[in-house]
Each structure stands twice: as structure tokens, then as C-alpha cells.
Amino acid sequence: MFKAEKFQPGASREWKELRLPTYYERLRGKEYLSQKGLAFQERDITQDPGALADLKKLGYMTTPVIVMDGAVIVGFDSAKIDEYGVG
After folding, report:
1. Is the backbone of residue 83 left (phi > 0), alpha (psi -120 to 50) or beta?
2. Which of 11, 19, 44, 59 is the most exposed place for a label (fewest CB within 10 A)?
3. pTM of full prediction above 0.70
4. Where are the alpha helices (DSSP H) in the chain?
């Protein structure tokens, strides 16, 4: 589904963030992933029915949710992002 490996500058990986468009925690997650140089796909659950369906399949109704290679991070948590693929 999503791929994550130990961080290597310039390496390609797929990250997805399911979020609401103006939620503060989402903005922190977006900023953090961008600062780490990670390409990621933002999916706005208010505009993308597939994103909302994916969020429900994961069993959550809160945002942000960051997913990579089966690892799910609910809310902004830089330590978990680092643990699962950046640090």
C-alpha cells in the first residue's frame, strides 16, 4: 500500500496524509514532512470521497492520519514519523 524505509536524502518514498483542509495539526504534519524532504500525497477528506473512505477503513474519524507501509500515525507525532521512516 504505502512504502517507507529508513530516511535517505533524495530517496523516493510514498507517504499519504488524510486530513481536513485547515486543521492546525495537519499543517504541522505537512510542514514537518516537507522539512524532511519527503514527497507525500495530501488527501483532503472534505474534497476526496476516497480519502474519507480510506480513513474509515483504517477505523478513524479524526485527522490528521499519516500512513506509510502499513504504519499509521494518528495526529502529528514527529517522533513516530522519525521512527517509521525518517530518522
Report:
1. alpha
2. 59
3. no
4. 24-35, 49-58, 78-81
pLDDT tens per residue, range 51-60 = 999 999 999 8
Collapsed DSSP state (helix, strand, coil) of residue 82: helix
Domain ranges of the chain: 22-86
- Helix/strand number for the chain, H first, E second: 3, 4
The C-alpha atoms of residue 27 and residue 64 are separated, in whole angstroms, by 9
pLDDT in tens, 2-11: 333 444 444 4
Indicate the CATH number of 22-86 among 3.40.30.10, 3.50.50.60, 3.60.15.10, 3.40.50.80.
3.40.30.10
How crowded is residue 17: how many other Cβ atoms within 10 Å of its Cβ? 22
